[in-house]
Amino acid sequence: MEAVTYQKLETYAKRLPSGVLAIWQPPQAVKALLELEPGADQDFQMMVAFESEPGVPTGKWMSLGNHKSIKVSWLRKHYHKLGNLLHVPSPATESSSLQREPKELRKYLESVVAELEPVVASRFDSSLANLVEFQCSVCGEPVAANLEGVQKSHKAVCLNPSCGAEFSPLKAKRVSFYFA
Ligand SMILES: [Zn+2]
């Protein structure tokens, strides 16, 4: 889960504030990444076709590859559940059935592996997007959010962990946004 998450963050590294990769745990990292790129935890297939003019495809669509991703809700649930299994329950806490029953634990771990296998096997990713880019007026870090995501959510968030400022678009054009 960590390897898949860090590989995903590597794809978006140019759009992330410096130093955050060392601070975030995978569930926090993917949640924060979704602020910049709402589709970053989705599966997709990338298709291309020749165009006779911009926006008018002609001929056959060709697949460049398929991407399989871990959804942030799944990651949050299983990352912490697996983490808890690494610890011996303290005398003050009751052990879970997974900790008591090796057969149940094995079944659970096999189900996690089965869900991770296609994600680990996926070698294709892409971060193509129209971006809204500006400098955070609070901390000075660059913010590079997906334009479509900003148009839907009406906000862009600074991912500097010690900042987190939210910005609202004042005036929307196709590729330029102005923030205050
Ligand atoms: Zn900031």
Nutshell version of this structure?
The chain is α+β, with helices and mostly antiparallel strands.
Describe the structure in your own words.
The protein starts with a helix and ends with a strand. It is built from six helices and eight strands; from the N terminus they run H-H-E-E-H-H-H-E-E-H-E-E-E-E. Helix 1 runs parallel beside helix 2. The protein has 180 residues and is an alpha+beta fold. The C terminus is likely disordered. 37% of the residues lie in helices and 24% in strands. A hairpin with a 4-residue loop joins strand 7 and strand 8. The chain has two domains: 103 residues, no CATH class; 49 residues, no CATH class. Strands 1-2 form a two-stranded antiparallel sheet. A two-stranded antiparallel sheet has the order 3-4. Strands 5-6 form a two-stranded antiparallel sheet. Bound molecules: zinc ion. The site of zinc ion has 8 residues, from loops.
